[in-house]
Amino acid sequence: MTEIIKATTIIGLVHNGKAALGGDGQVTLGNTVMKHNAMKIRKILGGKVLCGFAGASADAFTLMERFEDKLEQYRGNVQRAAVELAKEWRTDKYLRKLEAMLAVVADNTAIIISGNGDVIEPDDKIVAIGSGGMYALSAAKMLVKHSNLSASEIVSEALNTAAEICIYTNTKINVEVIEN
Question: Looking at domain 5-169, which CATH architecture does it have?
């Protein structure tokens, strides 16, 4: 039986003119933590777009490269690039087997892209994926509603909250920010 690599909480949002995306650093194999400081978020398209992944790392890097290619092909149009990647991901025989999800934030956009062909753009511009994603999402929603924290601070606090609850999330947090 092959061990399943479980890892990650990725949370991002667009808030008060800034886009922030963060992730924890834990990678788990079975019941063992294999790595504490993995970097699961990237600035792409010359720092104009933030992209994070959950799932198999090699699969995620393949998808991020394809997404960046689509961004260049469609001149930075995040929504169009996401839809085109999702279509290709769902229909391509090789890509269909990739097990990962992407969370993307830029300008005034926050999107989740999945291998099922889903391109989800939440109304509140908060995206979360991974094992602790829903914990971080809940925390971020409340912080947006009931605090004056910056986008970066909300992402950090939401990740710390997820780390307190989810055994696949740690407090080795990386946050990237772009200003609109």
Answer: 4-Layer Sandwich (3.60)
